[in-house]
Amino acid sequence: MEEVDKILIHALKQVGTVVSEETDSVKLFSSELIVEAVVRCIRVIDPGLGSALPTSLPPGMSARFRVGMSLAQACQDIGYKGEIGYQTFLYSNEPEIRSLLMFLVEKLPRERAEVSDQPTGKSVVLQRAIAAVIKAQLAVPWLPSNCRLPLLDETQCPGALHSFHVQSLSLPHCSKGPGKKQLKEVMDYQRYILPPVTAQFSRHTSVLASILEQHIAELSAAQEWDNEWNSQGLLSRLTPQDYHCRKLTRMHKRIKEQLHSATLTSPESPLSGLCSTSDLSELLQAFRCSDPSDHVLTKGTHFTHTQKFTFTQVAAMTSSIPTGHQSENDIQLCQQEELTLLQQQFHQLCSDVNQLAADIKHLSVPYTQVLDELKQNELGNSEKEEKIQVKKKTIDLLPDANSNLLKLQALVEASAKRIVNLASQWEKHRAPLIDELRRLKEICSNQDLESSRKLSEIKTLHDRIRVSTEEAKKKEEIYKQLVTDLENLPQDLSRSAYTQRILEIVSNIKKQKEEIKKILSDTKELQKEINNLTGKLDRTFAVTDELVFKDAKKDESVRKSYKYLAALHENCNQLIQTIEDTGTILREIRDLEEQIETENGNKTVANLERIMDDYKAIRQENSALAAKVRDC
Amino acid sequence: MAATETQFMLSVGLIEKDVNGDTLWVWCYPSVGSDLRQVLLRKCCLTQDGRDFHTFVFGQFCRTWYYITTVEVQEPTALNKEFVQSDENGSFLIKDYDVRKAYLAGSVKDVVSQFGMETIILYTALMLKKRIVVHHPRIEALLEFTRVLPTLTWHRKDWSILHPYVHLMDIELEDLKKCPGYVAGFVDPEVSNRSDLFDVYVNLPDSVITVSQSAKEAMAMGKLHKEVGHLIVQSAEDADRSDSQVIKDISIKTKEILTNLVALANECEDSKITLEVLKQHHFPPATENFLFHLAAAEQLLRI
């Protein structure tokens, strides 16, 4: 109980109740303290209700009575379900007060609801602190300069505003990589002479702006490089330095090409003469006005190149342009001439092309015929050649026809026999080779199975490793965060003591539960036994009764024994009954003793005395008031 | 080719599918070239995971005809002996098989009933020695269909244009391209994308005939074609006429056209036609075009 009281007192102190150090348990609360605590709690829980209630009891008895009633009403409005009335506050007893205070303390709104478990770490804590400070500053209302406290002047006067002025920083760059060694002088300069960043500026106010700008520029450059490297650089399979070099050469080439083409476009116009005197701005204009797409950058086909050349020739032929200014009409005439010439050429080319196409079409059909003829002729030729070969051989053999015939037959038979012989030999060789093939294939497939199985195992292992590392990381983070949270917690309550106690209580409860279970099962057993025995008894008695009664009609001694039996049964029953009654009465005694104890806890006697005193005081007040009324 | 000319059987071979899925040449007599061996391995359905089992397949490669029959065998050793015995006992007489009967084995009526008037496209293509590609996922249907097509040009009796079972492999396509005009059957549906291989594409399961762009001009059809088409359809629809009679009707019409053409050619010197001569007769343009190309196919054009 002490821990509960300590927690309650702590919570009440937080709400604003003044509790002295000696009162460390609810038993020692006085009525005034109870009223103050309850009112303050209600004020926090529900400001509307609580503002109407006073924090201290007024001296007059009826007033105290009224205050008690309103407090009880307020508590019931909040939701307290237990029995409550003015007596709870004026004539308090410990259990009621404890439960009421616990209910109110639980109802207190939790202030710490926003502290969620965001990830981790000191930087987050720092950020949260910064956010809190800014929030606080923003929460302060703006006041005109006359009304401001000097504290607010810092944040609210216009002198605190500065324009975003950026100056270039000079940062020492640490060169990574073994290739480039910095000169000793540079390093000395950087180490001894170069002032720190905050001191590099003429205006103190541009420090922040410049640092921000420098940082963002570097960050965006790094991000751009990352993006480019991840998309194109890795594809190109070069080292970063090679990639850089290649990019540089490419850019050089592009710039050269663009300049070339820009200078080339000008001679095509009849104003070629102007090209030499055109100034840089016009050149750049032409440069910019040409197709913004890659049109300028494409090399162009051979055809367009030749076209360009012919056109320049044409331009050279037709333009008899002196250097210097031209009149509008002359320019137009030249253009017209060129246009007609070009059109003529175009028509000529078109007709040529058409002619060629028609010719091709016309010739394709006879071409197919010729091919066909050719193929047939070739086939015929080859057939004839074969025939000639055979006939030639026959003619060679003809002079000695018969013997040659016999020889040929023998030859043919011999080769046939040899082939059959070889085939059978091959069959003999083939069987073991096939077996070998089958065996090796089986081994191969087994190995494949093995390797695929092992691969899948490796994969699952990898997955498990990955999952475990992630879990470990997460747990590390949670641990760090919990440690920082622990450090941030207020140290006035010893949580470990509470947690110990809670755990002890839990284990005690568990043990008790076990014991209760055991007792229950024992009781059940006993009850079963009792039932069994009672049943047996009844049955035995019934049987005996019958037996004896049957004989009792005839025999005198049996009748006597029957009477004794009945008496025995009766007395035993009474005995059992008495035992049961004793047990019941003992239980009742126990219950009554408990009740006496609890009633003793309520300071009933003291309260009664106070009630009597108050009753007398009220009667006195009533009579005083009545006397006043009579006098008026 | 005279009907009595016999073709000789060049060789016999045996291919076996092994227990662990390998298809291997076991045996051949007297010999089979290595190219042909590869091709035959591909053609015999044993290489295709044993899904389809075709009992009889034939085709042409490098002007050699091959015939593959596939048999399922319980006891591996028995087959060898059986085969050898049949060779000795049953003389496989080629003369027993009349060439003409073999040529007529397919049914023209089926073709006409499947395609109707569009059969004229096939007729035109065959007359003009164009390249026809037929596709069907089942090899039996393919073989049955393609062997009929050369009967439409009976006057040529040229079955060397028939390649009923071709795969899309380089070596076979090379061989195919050596012929200016052919009828090729493919099981692979990819062939529809190979427009370099055909002038006319026949999708047999969907009964769709497509003429490729490059050949559309040469295959332009007019009144003459309509006439011939009607004749074919009528003749095939007539229930009383048999397949051979239908083929005879078609060949009579063809002969008519050809005699006309030859007559035209004879009017010119050295009996060769030129386009100008045709133009003089003022045929309708489609007919003129057709006759021009036909003359080229029949070697009647002057170069």
UniProtKB/TrEMBL annotation, chain A:
GO terms for biological process: positive regulation of ubiquitin-dependent protein catabolic process. Residues 509-536, 589-628 form a coiled coil. GO terms for molecular function: cullin family protein binding. Residues 128-601 form the CCDC22 coiled-coil domain. Signal peptide: none annotated. Keywords: Coiled coil. Residues 1-109 form the CCDC22 N-terminal domain. Pfam families: CCDC22_CC (PF05667), CCDC22_N (PF21674). The keyword Coiled coil applies. InterPro entries: CCDC22 (IPR008530), CCDC22_CC (IPR048348), CCDC22_N (IPR048349). Belongs to the CCDC22 family. This is Coiled-coil domain-containing protein 22. The lineage of its organism: Eukaryota, Metazoa, Chordata, Craniata, Vertebrata.
TrEMBL record, chain B:
This is Uncharacterized protein.
